[in-house]
Amino acid sequence: MLYQRSRAEDHIAVLHEIVDIARTHKPHLIIHSGDLFDHRRPSYHDEGIAIDVLQELAAIAPIVVLRGNHDSPHWFRHFARAYGPRSGIHLIDSRRDPNDGGILRFDGPGDTTLRLGVLPFVDIATQTNVYDNPDQWYSSYARAVGEFERELAAELVRDLDTSREIAVFTAHEYVRGAELSGTERAMHIDDKYATDPADLPAVSYAALGHIHKPQQLRISGVTACYAGSPLQLDFGEAGEQKSVVIADLHPGQPAEITTVALQSARQLRIFEGTLDKLRANASTFGRDLCLFKIHTPTNDPTLAEQVSAIVPDAEIVGVRPIFGDEPEIITADIVGAEADSDLRTLFAEFLSTQSGPKADPQILHKQFDRILTCFEDEVAFTLPDIEALLAEPDDTSDLEENQR
Fold it and tell me: pTM for this structure?
């Protein structure tokens, strides 16, 4: 949804376009680098669409799908079991040991083999202790992810026959230096979650997910690309050309990268100017989803109707008057649903506004982080005091102590 309008038409169109591109190019392997869904509890309808598209792609070539930070590990495990080990759909729900599923192997043309190291999104809660110094949580996280990458890299290149084998790496992570679109959620994309680009394995190609803006990273020793989101998800991505990445790989040679533009989804457009300027450019809008910021000297209650008459085919998500030289008032709906604040930051700000007796702020921060982490990981949260009350007492004296 965007501004209470369904994007289903655009999603379905671009998914069919991606399938057509795969049928045309006939790759030997397809990689989805994470965030199959936008949230962890997709509707049955959306699940059905995803399952159908994955099966269509798997009929063309094996497909590897990483769990992203928006995806439920339980969903991935459930459908991995349903598909079975012989399926051409490989759902990677969690980090794997390099010697136990962390390196996948696929046959290429002739006698070539592709080694693929897989690293789905690593939850910070699994790599940090909430009772440690909070200032060290994110540095510990980056070090842990870097260590996972180095372990995979070592196994990827171990006894690699460069005359017939190709090493590839795929991960769902924020590599420091990547350019953001502006709609990624701060919960998992800011400098605190940034990983060191030097830790990426020195492979022929690194297929990355997490960042919405399609881009090739400037990293020495490896060709690395973010495929990006398949369509413009919010107005922070307006103007971005979405695409599919085609990596042409040969043993002992650097990757040759080609991008295929995705054209089927409607574009997001922001227009600012007068009604006369809009009339002069009316033919360019087509059926795009548009946000109009109209300069007008006075309040005009018919402004939305006038805009609609000028661009009758466009889907108008909002018409905002701008009076003279007055600055536009930025509201939550203008920013868009994707511009989430970091809940930990909001909680810290909330605590700072409270007066009167209160608990140690550091303890409160730790407990809040535990609750939030459990929510993100879809696991039950229980306070240690309650755990003690529910524990089986050794004798009556222990029970009396627990009751006190």
Answer: 0.77
